[in-house]
Hints:
mainly alpha
Amino acid sequence: MSWFGIGRTQARQLEADTKCRTFNREDSEGSLRNEEAEAEELAVSWLEIMKRWDSNSRKKQKSQVEKLVYRGVPNDLRALIWMVLANDSNKSHLRLRYPELIEQTSPCEKLIRRDICRTYPEHKFFKEQGQEALFNVIKAYSLHDREVGYCQGSPFIVGILLLQMPEEEAFCVLVELMESYRMREFFKPSMKELSVNLYILSELIQEQIPELHLHFKAQGFHPTTYASQWFLTMFATVLPLNAVFRIMDIFLWEQTYDVIFQVGIALLKEGKDKLINMDIEGMLQYFRTTVYRNYVGAEDDLVQKLRQIKLDQKKLRRLKQVWTNEKERESLELEECKRLTFENSVLCQRIKTLEDETCHLADKLIKGQVSRAEQAEEMFILKRELVALRRHDGELNEKLKESTRKNCYIDAKLHGICGENEALRQALSSLGHDPMQFVQNVEMPNCVYSNTVKLPKLDSCQGREERCDAGYCTIGRQESSECNPGAMQVLAENTSSNQQSGGDKSTHARSISSDSVISSSSSEQANHNNSYYKNNMQTDSKLVISEGGSSLSSNSNKLSEGLKRTFGLSDKSSSSRVL
């Protein structure tokens, strides 16, 4: 098989047709005749190259082919030459697969439909059947290479191919450009290759056009703003199609992006004087319209300019390595930044947690201090109350001791009185008098003489009791007064003696005067007893202030009750006349 699988018969027929066109143009005018002759000569040269083309022809015929490429590729032979240069002969399996791919459904169909209407909108081919062919090729490739899928910019590359060849051949050449020429690196989501080439272009501008580089830097006009489409569309959005075809010829032959750098530097050098005096908007407008107008029909001039720009391949590789190292460093810094950001977020969360714990502990501490202050205040109050209670307890203990001492004294006095009462009772019994009869004959007179009654004197050691000993009657000021049994015994003895001696019962006259004197009957025994009683009374008697008639009556009642308890009398037998 010869070049791109074309048979010898077809090659001869193509050569014959070319010669026929040459002979038919011999009658043209001189200038046109020269151009046509040059074109036909160029076509014949290409045909001779294609006849001898094989897998090693790129090396064997390098110098000859390179001259032909820079002179230009005839439009009639461009499709075949592009397929040969792209080594499309090994992609026969893609031709068979293409019909299957266009029948499938791509997830990028909506995006493709949206963008193809903006691809060469003024070109007649894409206003008619070209849009559907463009859609089919782009969709087929998005299914063939799902990693790249669809990216804006690729429709312009496909459009350039469709203007030269059918759908199937355009699809095969597109796959070869993407894979062998590494254009797919431009269209990957990361667009790493595009970033590398933009960096290299910026460094080349700084080296070859330093004034323009400074102006771009001052305006903030980065290559990504104006040069990205150069690499993605092969200048299809900037230059006329004939110039784009010539650039594609060189790119397919060189198989490197040097042609893009050369074309870019050539365009910038030509417009340097205008661009330096423009702002960002003016520079963008220059690249959209002015560049296109400058190269309409001047594609040969552009090729000559780019050939004058020499690029050092070692320097390009070095710049690429610098960019790679810089990106690796940035990647490491980014990873470190992400790590530090993550650690910072963790630490911030930890700080927030510690702040919350600190606030909680501070609140707890404040509450504890307030609680301790309240407890201290309560403790102070309790201590003060405790001191008061201790003082009060001391006072109560003193009072208790005093009361105990008084009780002991009273018990001792009571014991003595009980002994005296027992002695009096025995004395009365020894005299033979009946104590009950004696009490019945005792008549208490109306003791309202001067509102006083003479009673035994108060004991000096007891402010609340009155002692009656051996005929003395004790009456308490605040306690119940009881009649001294000893006195009642004396009275009972006198009464009993008078009854036994047969004296007159009615002759007993009693009066309570300021001296509390009790007179007896005229009998001897009574006189003896009364004299005894009077002598004992006068020994310790003392005038006690009377509290009036009501107080006297109360004391009389208490005296009667005391007599009852002393002699064991009942209510019936104690009906003595006591006031």
